[in-house]
Write the C-alpha cells for this entry.
Amino acid sequence: MNELRESGLDPLIIDAGDLFFSTANLNPTNKESELYRASAILEGYSRIGCDAINVGHYEMLNGLSFLKEMDEKTEIPFLSANLRDAKTNTLLFDPFSIVEKGTLKIGIIGVTDKLPDTTKSMITDDYVEAGNHYIDEISSKTDLIVMMVNSDRKTYSELPIHFANADFIVTSGSTNMTQPNTPQKDGGPYLYSCGKQGKYLSVLSVDLEDTNNPIVDVSAHEKNIKSIRKRFERLQKKDPNKSLDELYAGQANVLKIIEQNRDKLKESEAVIKSAVNTMKFETIALNKKIRDNPELLAFVDESLAACSSLKPKIAKTAPRSNSKKKRKPDLKKKQSGVGNNL
C-alpha cells in the first residue's frame, strides 16, 4: 500500500466484516488470545490506512462493550446502516462514509444480516431496506457507491438485484472467492467476495472518465484475449510460415474452433476499445513473492508471538499403561465442566 501511495496513487482500502476473531467460539481457553488478536488486527489496519470497516457477525461476538471499546481505539470508521442499540433503538455507528480519492467522491455503506444468537444488546433493521435508504441519501453527493455486506453466501446471487443502484458490492460471511472471470450482472453492480483468512488480496482498479457512462469490467475480456492468443500460438507452432487456415485446411472441426475463437477475440477487443470507463479485478496471493514492509512484518511477527504466548499450554498426557489391572473408582472425585459462554 505504501508503494502505491509513493507512486502517486491513493487506494481505497475497506473491510466488509468478520475481521476480528479466528473463531466464532470464544471461550475461556482462547478468549485472551483472540481479544489480543482483534486489537492487533485493528492496529495493523490503522498502520496500513484502512478507510472503513463494516461491523459484521464476528465483530459482535464479544458483545457491545468490547465493540465500542475497539471503535474508540481507532480513527478507522466502523460503519453499520442497520445495527441498533437494543435499549435506545439508535444506530450504533455511522451508516456511511464519503471518502475523497483524487477527484472522486466514494460513498461507502455497511450492513449486516448475521446478528449473533447470543447477543441481547444489539438489534438489526432489514439490511436491504437500510442499505437502499442510504444509497438514495448519498447518491447525489457521490460519484461511486460501494456496499459492504456481511451475509451468508446463499444471499449473494440476489445482492446485485437488492442493491441495484450501488456500483460495487463487497461481501463477507463466506469463504467463497470471486475470480476475474466470475460472471457478473451486466452493467453492475459488481459483486466481490474476498475469500478466507486474508490469503488473497482482492484488487479492483477503476478508470473513471465520465460518470454518465457505465463502468465496463474488462477483466474477463483481457483474460479471454490472452487465452485465445496463446491457443493460436500453440496451433501456429506446426508451421510459423503458414496461416492457420492453410495449416488445418483438411480439418473442419479445428477450423470451426479457430473461427469461433476469432469471433470471441474480435468481440472482446471491441468491448475494451469502446469502453469509456473501465475496471479490472484481480486476486493477489499473499505469498513469499510479495515484498514485505519491514516495519509491518516485524509488527505481525510480534503480534503472532504474543497471540501464541497467550494460549494455554496443553499438558502432555501420560502414555496408556498396557496393564490389564483394573482400578477401583474414586467416589470422592466429582466431574466438572466449563461452559462456553460468549
